[in-house]
Amino acid sequence: MSVGDVSKRILLGRKLRSSQLGETLLPKRIALPVFASDALSSVAYAPDEVFIMLAIAGASTYVWSWKIGLAVALVMLTVVASYRQTVHAYPSGGGDYEVATVNLGRNAGVTVASALLVDYVLTVAVSISSASQYAAGAIPPLIGHEATVGVIAVALLTAMNLRGVRESGSFFAVPTYLFMVAILGMCAYGLLRLLAGDLPDAESANLEIVPQPGWEEPLTQVGLMFLLARAFSSGCAALTGVEAISNGVPAFRKPKSRNAATTLLMLGLIAISMMMSVIVLAKQMTIRYVDPHELDRLRTVGGGAVPEGYEQHPVISQIAAGVFDHFPPGFYFVVTVTGIILVLAANTAFNGFPVLGSILAQDGLAPRSLGSRGDRLAYSNGIVFLAALSMLLIWVFDAETTKLIQLYIVGVFVSFNLSQLGMIRHWTRHLRTERDPAVRRRMMRSRAINTFGLGMTAVVLVIVLITKFLAGAWITILAMGFFFLVMQAIGRHYARVELELAADEQDKVMPTRVHAIVLASKLHKPTLRALAFARATRPNVLEAIYVSIDAKATTRLLEEWDDRHLDIPLKVLHSPYREVVRPIVEYTQEIRRASPRGVVAVYIPEYVVGRWWEQLLHNQTALRLKGRLLFTPGVMVISVPYQLRSSQVAEERRRDEVRVHAGDLRRGRVASRDTNRQIDDE
Questions:
Q1: Residue 648 pLDDT class (50, 70, 90 cuts)
Q2: Does 9 map to a domain?
Q3: What pLDDT does 159 receive?
Q4: What count of Cα atoms within 13 Å lies in the side-chain half-sphere of residue 545?
Q5: By residue range, what is the domain housing residue 520?
Q6: According to the model, what pLDDT value does residue 111 have?
Q7: How far apart are CA 95 and CA 366, in angstroms?
Q8: Where do the DSSP E strands lie in 305-461?
Q9: Share of the chain above pLDDT 90, in %
Q10: Less packed terminus of the chain by CB within 10 Å, N or C?
């Protein structure tokens, strides 16, 4: 086993057979943390964004925070109810993309796919950036290095997901459940203290907020509505990740649709409970929270500026510090698991993006490499691609959540709207043919749910576009347009290639003649093997070609050729400029022009080596020549391998890897005879 294989085994684990795919399916207790961590983790930053937006006009507008929370909760319940219909109607895992493609057409499907791809990338970037901010708040030396911390976190998360969905889910389950316990426990204890009348104020309660320029005067009705709309659109970040379950239905155990729908309902109820509890406690504890880049708007009670180096802690941190003012371990537990869950929240995207990429690859809208599974049966190429894009965003935006959040949720609400419209058409189409009254009632109820969901998500999308377009949402729209055009171009390319490769009657026509050329650099074993193989194919014309760049070497080769009495003619191509590739290419083109209906077969002797560095020392001219000849019509390139001793050693190592060892059958590394017989029968 090579060093690379050993490293891969350590990082990813042993390879899994395709027949073991069923072993990677998830029960509900694992699927919930795998697919819900994104939506649940939004509790760590969605309330913060609501208070930041309301703080534009000062702390007096915080009275609207719980009403905005209720509006977000209503939208979330509507979306959850709508997607429960989707997972039953389309359990194949295509989610919004499949719904839009089947019911609204290919362009709508590509639009949804581009929106989801952008949203998945932003999910990773926002979650990891927020986690980096928490880490920097807890560990002062990390301040100023948040982007580096974020990139490292994405790399670690990528390695975990490359090990497989089930392994990464099992690893992430414990922190996700601890986060639920921490937040719900903190909120429950805080609400009990509120009812008892001893809930303390937050650490920022003694501060005042200076409104942004232009917002100092009392708000008009239009101004208030616009401000509330901005806060509502930021709070809707809590809805991101809800659609991931509809894309991940194939990862559930049977019955897949029912398990996915149950998990979706659990996600909605838990997320709403956590978010509303945090918003209510934040308001009751008189938290003051502004944009981290506008700390100069905070004033002390006397009107003075906050002390130099003042650190504004996130909303959950301030709540935990107040609720657990006499129990520090509770505070550290909440802050720690919150930071961890923000890292793991990106895992939702790492499960959704590769599956969507594989479906797009099957439909010819993405590179086909995204549709292949890796050693651990995960879509490795999609995971790596997502990680690369996320790292780039984190680095470019310096892991600043407030900047990234402005790019967020546009894509997901575009997919929400097209999905709801597609589901309405789905039920309408089936109602035309369905005659069973009970089934028709269920369909009409489902269509009503999706219609209400479309109305709600359409309103939210309009609000988001109006309030966030100039703040950065235009970047998301451009990115969606870019992905849309790229996928359309890939689709046209695959369609054009398939049409061009379609077999017809002319493909049966035999070439009039075959002119075989064997390249000879020396008269040694590889050359003699190539000559023998070329002769065995019985071409119409067979000759050897040598490119002369040195007169002495040419004379020596001609003498050896005559001494061996080879009955194959050797043609010497003189190259005054010491080029090797060009004379051969030009010679084959001349033969082709002389016989347009014939074929030129070029046999190239190549060395087969066993070590990577040996490849750098051999076959370089052959590689360049093949690269040129592949673009020449009517020219066939045939590699004639000659195995050096090092290649035999490498082959022995590979044979030893696949050799069956004691205990392999018990560990499931090889199939039993009965299993093999069953596979053969199938």
A1: low
A2: no
A3: 81
A4: 27
A5: 511-643
A6: 92
A7: 17
A8: none
A9: 21
A10: C
> In terms of C-beta density within 10 A (0-12 exposed, 13-18 middle, 19 or more buried), how is residue 215 classed?
middle
In this structure, are residues 393 and 360 in contact, taking their beta carbons and an 8 Å threshold? Answer: no
Domain boundary among the residues 496, 531, 560 is at: 496
Using alpha carbons only, give the angle 470, 134, 185 rounded to the nearest 5 degrees: 110
Give the Cα separation of 161 and 178 in Å (integer).
20
Whether residue 636 is found in the same domain as residue 528 = yes
State yes or no: pLDDT of 25 exceeds 50.
yes
Report how far residue 48's alpha carbon sits from residue 391's, in angstroms, rounded to the nearest whole number.
24
Of 470, 496, 522, the position where a domain reaches its end is 496
* DSSP states along 625-670: HHHHHTTSTTEEEEEEEEE-HHHHHHHHHHHHHHS--TTTTTTTSS
Determine the pLDDT at residue 622.
82
The pLDDT of residue 240 is 74
CB 232 within 8 A of CB 224: no
pLDDT of residue 654: 59
CB 108 within 8 A of CB 295: no
**Statement: the pTM of the whole predicted model exceeds 0.90:** no
Asked if 486 and 537 sit in the same domain, the reply is no
The CATH number linked to 186 is 1.20.1740.10
Question: Is residue 612 in a domain?
Answer: yes
Instruction: Tell me whether residue 661 is in a domain.
Output: no
Number of structural domains (the chain) is 2
| 76 and 207 share one domain | yes
Q: Both 478 and 560 in a single domain? A: no
pLDDT for 493-502, tens place per residue? 988 888 877 7
- Same domain as 202, residue 122: yes
pLDDT (average), residues 67-96: 85
In a domain, 5, yes or no: no
Cα(42)–Cα(681) distance, rounded to whole angstroms? 50
Instruction: Give the pLDDT band of residue 5 (cuts 50, 70, 90).
Output: very low
The per-residue pLDDT for range 565-597, each reduced to its tens digit, is 888 999 999 888 788 889 999 999 999 888 888
257 and 345 fall within a common domain: yes
Same domain (yes/no): 341, 397: yes
Q: What is the DSSP string of 149-210?
A: HHHHHHHHHHHHHHT-HHHHHHHHHHHHHHHHHHHHHHHHHHHHHHHHT-PPPPTTTT-EEP
Please say whether the beta carbons of 573 and 579 come within 8 A. no
The CATH number of the domain holding residue 575 is 3.40.50.620
- Is residue 214 helix, strand or coil? coil
Q: Are residues 235 and 89 in the same domain?
A: yes
pLDDT value of residue 544: 94
